[in-house]
Amino acid sequence: MLLLFQSTHDVILAEKALRLAGIPRRVIPVPRSISSQCGMALEITPDHAERAVELLDATVFPGGSAQGDAHRYQIYTPTDEQ
Amino acid sequence: MEQDYFRHEVNGYFDCGATSFPKPAQVALEITRYLNEVGGPYGRSFYGRALTVSGVIEETRSLLAGLLGAKHPERIIFTHNATHAVNIVVKGLALKGKEVWISPLEHNAVARPLRRLKQDGQIRVRFLPSAADGRVEPERLLFSERTGLIIVNHQSNVNGVIQPIREIKKKAGPLPVLVDAAQSLGHQTINATDWGIDFVAFTGHKGLLGPTGTGGLYLGGRHLNPLIEGGTGSRSESSAMPGFLPDRFEAGTPNIAGIYGLRAALLHRPVPAHTREDFLGLIRAVRRLPGLMVHAARAEEHQGELFSITSGGMDSSTLGLRLYEDYGIETRLGLHCAPLAHRRIGTFPAGTVRISPSVYHSPRDFAVLHAALTGISAGA
Q1: Whole-angstrom Cα distance, residue B282 to residue B188?
Q2: Is residue B233 within 8 angstroms of chain A, CB to CB?
Q3: CB count in 10 Å sphere of residue B346
Q4: Could you tell me if A77 lies within 8 Å of chain B, comparing CB atoms?
């Protein structure tokens, strides 16, 4: 699962929250095939995906993924590929 | 011998209203560490160095948000200084046909951008009612429907008067209020969110003890057009500036080295070497010196950590020169980029000598300053 963010500010907030919670994550460049968002994306392994999203929605982005007031982050999974 | 004693044993730098000195030792160490060891950009890339740097920038943003009582750190925008921040607001708000109300103690950082808009026929500038020391009297405030912005210098850079910004905002209601906190932040409390303040412009190198070239703006939620447009590392496919914060107002690479230094200043703030009573005692003692006039707040509870003096027997340039050459005491002379304030307190165009200490000054430093002024007073 990839987490995409609108700004560096939000990537850092999310990375810190995941780090403090002990959720493994990998910082990778945003795949150009997906988006031209900010230069960092967070890659989460499938077994940690649900927990990661729950944590971010509960503590960092109360509006939820792609539903917040400014769509502050988006979830992208391989199954979304056409 | 006396001159050497003053120069080397005492902190005679009383120009912290211009820029603070000294800084916490960690400020220079962190700047150097970034330049020599860390390196790398803010955002824009994915590797560890970029992540580390971006984390420091965002941590600094959060520290500043905490200091300003701002609940959402993304509402803190990094700028070069307070002047830059003021310009973002004054030139970013839709003010055409509006009245802009200002305190009588505003700095040229406010007066000059407003003059530009006034010359262009866009705004009318009006002064908030005030007491003789320039302190705004909230109970006399009455704003017209055409009011577009209210600007208040939280702590005067001339006489140190603290403005009642909380009460002013209460009176202003939904009208936007911009607080210029260039001199106050680090000395005075601000609770931007709780008080409903719309904008706070601040600098990093005065009361916060950080390096020059750092500063910021708190945005309370009003719509503003960005002053500077360019790359943000986000929404790069679009030629328009992003609509979200903080990117909307942070085009171009920020002063990363400076922000490393500012973070160090915030994390390693020294315990003040003097008390408020020590400072007020200095003012009282200077007031008693014959031939010198103190320009300060009328009431001590409204006094911030700086004040001005003038001499009946010599102009401010001579007074400042005597302080420096005879006693090694460094002060700021003249109009302090605030001719409006000097007009209000009756010291225009001659100006004053400003005494602006920092948290590093001890009661002993104050005693030395007082002794120097006593000597000048006796000989004047």
Answers
A1: 19
A2: yes
A3: 11
A4: no
Q: Is the pLDDT of residue B5 over 50?
A: no
Q: Kindly identify which residue of chain A lies nearest to residue B61, measuring between CA atoms.
A: A9
Judged against a pLDDT cut of 60, whether residue A81 lies above it is answered with no
Q: Chain A within 8 Å of B173 (Cβ-Cβ)?
A: no
Test A15 with B58 for CB contact under 8 angstroms.
no
Cα A40 from chain centre: 10
Does domain A2-81 fall under CATH 3.30.70.1530? My reply is yes
Interface A:B, Cβ pairs < 8 A: 75
Reply yes or no on whether the pLDDT at B310 is more than 90: yes
| pLDDT tens sequence across B55-81 | 999 999 999 999 999 999 999 999 999
What's the rounded Cα separation, in Å, for the pair B151 and B177? 6
Could you tell me the two tokens for B197? 């303040």
Q: In this complex, which of A27, A39, A41 lies closest to B233 when CB atoms are compared?
A: A39
The ranges assigned to domains in chain A are 2-81
What is the Cα–Cα distance from B69 to A22, expressed in whole angstroms?
Answer: 29
Instruction: Please answer yes or no on whether B246 and A7 come within 8 Å at the CB atom.
Output: yes
Query: What's the half-sphere exposure (Cβ side, CA atoms, 13 Å) at B310?
Result: 17
B158 in Cβ contact with B341 (< 8 Å)? yes
Q: In 3-state terms, chain A is what percent helix, strand and coil (to 5)?
A: 40, 20, 45
Contacts of A72 in chain B (CB under 8 A): 244
Q: What is the pLDDT, as a whole number, of residue B236?
A: 86
pLDDT tens-digit map of B330-376: 999 999 999 999 999 999 999 999 999 999 999 999 999 999 999 99
Question: CA-based Rg of chain A, rounded to a whole angstrom?
Answer: 11
pLDDT tens, position by position, B100-137:
999 999 999 999 999 999 999 999 999 999 999 999 99
